[in-house]
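Input chain follows. Return structure tokens only.
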Amino acid sequence: MQKKIILLLAIAAITFTSTVYSRDLESVKLNFLKEDYKSAIAEGEKILAGSKDFQGCDKLYYLMGLSYLKTGNYLRASDIFEIIIKEFPDTRLKEEARLSLGDTYFYMGDYAKAKSYYLRLLENSPHARLRPALYYRLSQIDLKGGDTLSAKEYLAKIKQEYPLSPEIRINSGLFSSVEIYYTVQVGSFSSSLNATNLMRKLIQQGYLAYVEELKAEDSRAAYRVRIGKFSLRQQALDLESKLAQEGYPTKIFP
């Protein structure tokens, strides 16, 4: 499913300008869209052998990087995306190249490195166009790491903020099968004992409190104390207001 999203992003990102290389570039593009990635690579390498300094060269590199990614040559793909980022500082494809660079590590199984690229891009990107793709990729990494709650939170963000995104259209089964609920967090601890003590105190006060364990990439655990699993956000907002009046620090998830 993620590879279909890569194709959609490529179609949206690439618009060739008219140059002396336009016919050859168009051939690469058509081969890519036909999913004939080997031919796209062969045509692209032939163009680069003649010149690496022409209008649209960044677009050519981007299509080649995606083609190498689709054929499983992740090291070559990562090299090309690095070239785009370093040698074309003014390209409109820089953010797409960073996203795709993260994808190379995702497909190589280096989820920690992929996640670092996605989070950095999510934090630094001024544009909203890549956010659903980033949220989706982060959800997949968290699912693979067993952090289903965080994965649900990312999926909920897509569903709420980008209901018409290709991530939802292509992965409708995933979204319908994932239960999304709202909960109020009142504490996060490195000590399970501290979390349990707070949970018991809240239960004594009549709250449906529980503890969720979250394991970070460095294997350290955090223990989140949360209350309720609501289908409506307004229910969580009402509870948050009540808890805040009682002096608890609160935060709603997702």
